Amino acid sequence: MREILSDLVAEEQSLDQFLQGLHERDWKLPTMAPGWSIHDTISHLAYTEWAAAEAAGGNPPGQVTLDDIDEWTSRGVIEGRPKRYQEVIEWWRSGRAAVVDALSKKMPNDRIDWILAPMSAQAFATLRLMETWAHGLDIKMALTDRFKGEPEDDPLNDTPRLRHVAWLAHRMLPYSFEVAGEEFPEGGIRVELMGPNYARWVYGPPDAENVIKGIAGEWCRVAVHRLDLSATNLKAEGDKAEVALRVVRAY
User: What mean pLDDT comes out for the span 14-24?
Assistant: First the structure.
């Protein structure tokens, strides 16, 4: 658990540091999420972190169906709107610290009951990192006109921590197929990605007939529904690999 928790904390701290450069008025800016401002986004993260901390401590929030998931995710937004932005960020900080504390006492394969289905502690920590990263994209995209300087300093640049999101997206493929009403191939699906600094990340059976290849950042953004497949250079070999690119979801 040490590696994923270390990267989870680093991802959260990176977003926190970015937020420190915002003015109070910036918190009202709209994000890619319809109807959500930056203030709403951090409120959502704060609410879900506290729910996650409770779940990791053995007190799950109860099952939520896919039909009800939008209502559940909006609860934090509603709760956070009366708060000042300083209160919201402290709410988020305390929640994420509680999650890390609870998960630090777990073994990677320990099961945690979550809103849609039970999952391992390792996958649960990865889910928290994924959500932080994805909502961080929403926030940073709302401020792209502010980015100046060298390209390597762009806050939207991917980091090696993205490998966790790539792994989660691959691990969630059977679930993604199930939600979409598709049959997952018996031979599995292999995903071959190029990560930051030309790192090679490979997931899935080496002899799989269905293979997806491409840039890790594109794969992950498609999996969190922040990038349309048509805007990527991801390649699919095999009919089921093509289906996977259409239905993949990391949450």
Answer: 95
